[in-house]
Amino acid sequence: MSRVSLAIIGGGLVGASLALALQAGAKARGWKIVLIEPFAPGNTYQPSYDARSSALSYGSRLIYERLGVWQSMVERGEPIKDIHVSDRGRFSTARLSASEEGVPALGYVVENAWLGQCLWKSLDPDVISWRCPAEVIHMQPLEAGYRLTLNDETTLECDLAVLADGGRSGLREQLGIHVHKRPYDQSALIANISSSQPHDGMAFERFTDEGPMALLPLPDNRCALVWTRLGMDAQRLATLDERSFLRELQAVFGYRLGTLTQVGARHLYPLTLIEAQEQVRPHLVVLGNAAHSLHPIAGQGFNLSLRDAQALADALLASDQKPGELATLLSYQQRQQLDQHLTIGFSDQVTRLFGSDQTLISFGRNLGLLGLDLLPPAKRWFARQAMGLGTRADS
């Protein structure tokens, strides 16, 4: 039976980012890390009109710069130079600008497949190995770690197990880690859109009585659409023919990008705020969507998980103990507690405030947008939250 220092269960963007953040320090300490992932990463990047994307905040750029991988990531990224926030049918709007915030971009939109390629190619095989395709089907706590049973009936022991296998983690349930769920009774429709006019790096957040939508700039004058609607209505939109779908989207979004000319494959994701009630145990950390799944409209979920991963790596490398000691893991949790509380609260409140069709709330958010555009301190606070810098004292 083999033993490693860390077993990261889930080799997606969060798990791979954690591995990269640990890589140099792990090599110096002689740690061995294994990434266990059911889907083999591709060896080549294939551009696709329909590729799913992530909005990386400016704070995430700073992390990836520190890890030495940002320059390759941004080669195929689109900077968000401005964010236009509006409430359909009402007079108030707000605009956030990178130039006003003194940064080159408020964020960047990058295809997930390209992010994965950049991360996986940066991993040192002398420190980080793959078990892929492979899946952990059972986790047994030991006195000094965990024993993992894989679906090929092999076993592996580790000092620290990191559970980064997604929001529907069966292992989280198997370990008896309870979650707090807050259903939004909505689904997110995700698709890529083309328009007759260039987006010029503008991201749009538009709130309607039926639910919020976001259009984020992509390369090749595409936009990534996140359209939140009630479940049945989202199903209806997903099955419309392309022409009817674009006509309905145009009616809600307007003509800020001219005529909407093309929509790619449409995907639906039911939306629920999920928070694990435990994120650390001796020799165990719950990370990424397994720890917290957020509404996508504010674009905060992956960025928060990346900050968690960096904070966990920092805590592990600052300790003179083996990975997995509870005191070290508790220090990580304490460090991230405020960031998680503020980010999850910000995302949830934005979703609820701008997803309501109640008259008083609609009137209040209209005044709120007006105030946001007129009051520099409020505008700066909102911008810092959007950039993932809400808890940084040095920015």
From TrEMBL:
Keywords: FAD, Flavoprotein, Monooxygenase, Oxidoreductase. Belongs to the UbiH/COQ6 family. GO terms for molecular function: 2-octaprenyl-6-methoxyphenol hydroxylase activity; FAD binding. Coiled coil: none annotated. Pathway: Cofactor biosynthesis; ubiquinone biosynthesis. This is 2-octaprenyl-6-methoxyphenyl hydroxylase. The keyword Flavoprotein applies. It comes from the Bacteria. It comes from Pseudomonas endophytica. Residues 5-335 form the FAD-binding domain. PANTHER family: 2-OCTAPRENYL-6-METHOXYPHENOL HYDROXYLASE (PTHR43876:SF8), UBIQUINONE BIOSYNTHESIS MONOOXYGENASE COQ6, MITOCHONDRIAL (PTHR43876).
